Amino acid sequence: MKSLLTILLTLCIPLLTFSQSTNGKVSQGASIQLAIDSAAPGDTLFIRAGKYLENNLLIQKPLTLIGLDYPTIDADGKGEIFIVAGKDVTIQGFKLINTGRSSVEDLAAIKGLDAHDITIRDNRFDNTFFAIHLSNTNRALIQNNHLKAEAEHEYQLGNGIHLWKCKRARILDNEVSGHRDGIYFEFVTNSTIERNQSVGNMRYGLHFMFSNENEYLENTFKNNGAGVAVMYSHGMKMRHNNFEDNWGTASYGLLLKDMRDSQIIGNRFTGNTIGIYMESTSRSTFEDNLFKQNGWGVKLQASCDDNSFSKNNFIANTFDFSTNGSLVLNKVNGNYWEKYQGYDLNKDGVGDVPFHPVSMFSVIVEKVPSAMMIYRSMLVTMLDKAEKVIPAMTPENLKDNCPSMKPYDLYRKSK
Amino acid sequence: MTRIIKYILFDMLRTRFILLYLGFLLLSTISMFMLDGDNAKVVLSLLNIVLLVVPLVSVIFTTIHFYNSYEFMEMMLSQPINRKTVFLSQYLAVILALSLALLVGVGLPIFLYGASGSALTLLYASLMLTFVFVSLAFLAAVFTRDKAKAIGVGLLFWFYFALIYDALLLWVVYQFADYPIERATLAMISFNPVDLARILMLLQLDISALMGYTGAFYKEFFGSNMGFVYSTAILLLWTLIPVTWSMRIFKRKDL
């Protein structure tokens, strides 16, 4: 009996040491890489405040790294900072600056390779090429980070948060500015992007390629080259986001290309050159959105079909709706159009005459952009009026049969 | 000169034309603000009035006034006053009267109901239009002794700038759509004061669309203050050239 107990005990001792993690502290002057190498799996390392000149720190085991008072790790323009190639790693509370730049490699401040269950929290990134770059990593959590970059040209920049072939990632409460794409998803599924601020990025605030069944909620996309681009994806949920002031010659609040079965609900598009630009998009729902003071509210290319627009508010846009063909396969019903001039005799809140959201002048501008210069002249007002009475140039079938007389109270609904 | 301006101004106020104009502007502006809570929409509706009514009233009022005060001018010129003073005081008095009507009729409600950037630009654009069309009307008036003819010429100016010119412009833009015509369009716009005033408003109301796909040149032009400065400068030219020209004619004219 006694011998059996000793055997059991001896068996347990290595197990105990394995499961009981130790805490190590690293101070300025010491090497973080050395601390990582000597730590046992599951350990927690505390890095004290200070400046560490290190790069390419390789982590291949479950570890928790916590910075105390934002220690700065400076890669000095060479290579990457953390390379995580193991599961269950947490990186928290660091300031990571000056990664290398390369047009061949995707150099990143934190790079994850098969780094499942990685947690990246409360970090600050400054002047990084890519800030966070994860590939083949499932269940990542990226929360409350501040990402900042600056460069004159797009090719000098990487993406803020870049995910490639990942599943179930959660990206919450981050602030990204000045990168190429604020957040970039390629082959990423079932992930959530929530409450992030993506401001002043050169290309897109948020960019999806071949990424299905994701959702993004309550984010703000402002002053980017274009707000959000969603391409070649399906089953996306886009709710309660703000798309603001995305100005430029090819600038959109939201760009949809080759999309299907998606929901765009409760978003606010204000002051963009084009609120939503959509191409080859099918079976998607657009509800409870606000389009205000955009150049174009929605640009619906004739290659889209089976989409439905309802209960949206279109207010003070230069053009509410435009399209490039006469074939209409989409439903636009029951929206509020500020430009609607019809009447409501039976007082049911629904206008009695249909509204044609595509104005004649938007068709002209579509063909001849320079014609924009005579917009709002008396001539144009007269032409538009004449076209309303006898449609000749605008697609006759694109109409709202039951336009609302009053704007929908979207603000209350989103609360 | 100030004394002459004062007399002419009081004389004008007595004709009630200015008061009617003021009343019309005040009534339409206030009623629009009351009917619609959204300031941006009010500015849009006002824009149509301003682009149409302000040039029209300026032209007609100026020509009628000029011919009505023909005898007064002859009397003044029999005194030791030079022609330049007489002409300029007539001109300035008309501008002052119309601008005052505009400032009270449109400006007052705007300030009462909340002055936004676009509303102030509207006021500014309409003042500029008043200057330009008063100058043009003076030019039409000094050319001929015939009142009806001068009013006809003035109306033609108005009709041409408000409607015909834009139609021609649209036609040209359509015909040359395949060429890079951005600069050319802008140059053509400069030949129409109503269009210039409209551009001032477009910069306020439709900047996000203008920043759209109209090419790098427009982006530079509209994105900075260039658009505003350029329009103002050309509008001032549109005011100064006709008025100096008509003054020269008036000086040598056999009254």
Which labels suit this protein?
heterodimer, A: mainly beta, 13-stranded parallel sheet, 5 helices, 39 strands, 36% strand, B: 255 residues, mainly alpha, 12 helices
Write the layout of secondary structure elements.
The complex is a heterodimer of chains A (415) and B (255).
Chain A: H1 2-19, E1 23-26, H2 32-38, E2 44-47, E3 51-52, E4 57-59, E5 63-67, E6 72-74, E7 82-84, E8 89-92, E9 95-97, E10 108-113, E11 119-121, E12 124-126, E13 130-135, E14 141-143, E15 146-148, E16 161-164, E17 170-172, E18 175-177, E19 183-186, E20 192-194, E21 197-199, E22 204-209, E23 215-217, E24 220-222, E25 226-234, E26 237-239, E27 242-244, E28 252-260, E29 263-265, E30 268-270, E31 274-279, E32 285-287, E33 290-292, E34 296-300, E35 308-310, E36 313-315, E37 319-323, E38 331-332, E39 336-337, H3 360-367, H4 378-389, H5 410-414
Chain B: H1 2-14, H2 17-35, H3 39-68, H4 70-77, H5 83-112, H6 117-143, H7 147-175, H8 182-189, H9 193-205, H10 207-210, H11 215-223, H12 226-252
